[in-house]
Amino acid sequence: MVIHSLRYLGYNVLEASNGEQGLAISRENRDQIDMIFTDIVMPRISGPAMVSSLRQERINSPVLYTTGFADQSGISDKDNLIIKPYTTKLLAAKIREILDHAKARPHCA
């Protein structure tokens, strides 16, 4: 459903069904990724662990995490977290906020 919503909003989506695929896709498309949107709990590698690995490889795209377990997210920056369930309208606003914030700050490589 989320993939459909993102495409409906006009975003190009690179889809992965688990953290390992997310790492591989991100590595292959590193220059084409404007934002990483990942669930915190994923098969094989969690969203935060995947992002940590990407950061070590200098893939510094902004991140939006999602989870259905707000109390157990483990994400300290709640500005980069959207709790399930959410509407397409709320998702769109959160993505825009993150992308605008990333554009406003200087890019560090």
Low-confidence stretches: none
Overall pLDDT level: 90
Number of helices, counting only DSSP H or I runs of 4 residues or more: 4
Order of helices and strands: HHEHEEH
Subunit organisation of the chains: single chain
- CATH class categorisation: Alpha Beta
Specify the CATH architecture: 3-Layer(aba) Sandwich
**Order of strands, widest sheet:** 1-2-3
Q: Between the first and last Cα atoms, what is the distance in angstroms?
A: 33 Å
Q: What proportion of the residues form beta strands (DSSP E)?
A: 5-15%
Helix content class = 40-55%
Q: What structural class should be given to the helix and strand makeup?
A: alpha/beta
Give the overall silhouette.
globular
By CATH, the topology is: Rossmann fold
Number of structural units classed as domains? 1
| Rg, Å, rounded | 13 Å
Main sheet summary: 3 strands, parallel
Can you tell me the CATH superfamily? Response regulator
